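Input.
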Amino acid sequence: MAQSADTKRAGLYTAYLVRLWQENEQSPWRASAQSAVTGEKVYFADLESLFAFLQAQTIVNSSAQRVVPVNSSGI
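Output.
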């Protein structure tokens, strides 16, 4: 589905490249999400953290800005 320029400008659209991996069969799944717009990459130690980040990106606070993750420094 194509997104209009107005939708993107209004902050109603965001895109991420999500990568998932395991260090070995016993380790937890790890993840990263890279913004398709800015290229910024955020790493997650588990899938729950990734899901929380993605959910937070859909919540607009009172100043109409996206919620910023608390820790984007890596695994």
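The mean pLDDT is 79.
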